[in-house]
Amino acid sequence: MLRRKPTRLELKIDDTEEFESVKKELEARKRQREEAGSGAGASVIGVDMIGGGASASSTAASRTELINERIGYKPHPKPATLPTLFGSLQF
After folding, report:
1. Are the C-beta atoms of residues 85 and 79 closer than 8 Å to each other?
2. Is the distance from CB of 44 to CB of 55 less than 8 angstroms?
3. DSSP secondary structure letter of residue 72
4. Among 20, 26, 63, 90, whose Cα sits 20 to 30 Å from the Cα of 70?
5. What is the pTM of this model?
């Protein structure tokens, strides 16, 4: 197989402006989460102590939902009955 040198990429002003705008937006979201988290942090700790860690499992579930949403994965429940597993097979 023939190999070639990497293609040159050009960075344009529009690209840098778009990067800066996305970066500012992400920083704003991060600040909002930190502000919301600092106010709700004490209540979450109280729930963990009283609820016996039920909040940790809900956090893990919401984390997986967030990851699935980010990557575009939409899990579908698997069918458990025989007709749905095999369709309409005729013997």
Report:
1. yes
2. yes
3. T
4. 20
5. 0.35
5: tokens are 């040198």
What is the secondary structure of 20-34 as a DSSP string?
Answer: HHHHHHHHHHHHHHH
Report how far residue 36's alpha carbon sits from residue 39's, in angstroms, rounded to the nearest whole number. 5
pLDDT band at residue 45 using 50, 70 and 90 as cut-offs: very low
- Quote the tokens at residue 50: 């009283």
Are 54 and 47 spatial neighbours (Cβ–Cβ below 8 Å)? yes
Cα distance between residue 44 and residue 66, in whole Å? 19
Task: Count other Cβ atoms within 10 Å, centred on residue 85.
Answer: 10
CA pair distance 69, 60, nearest whole angstrom: 14
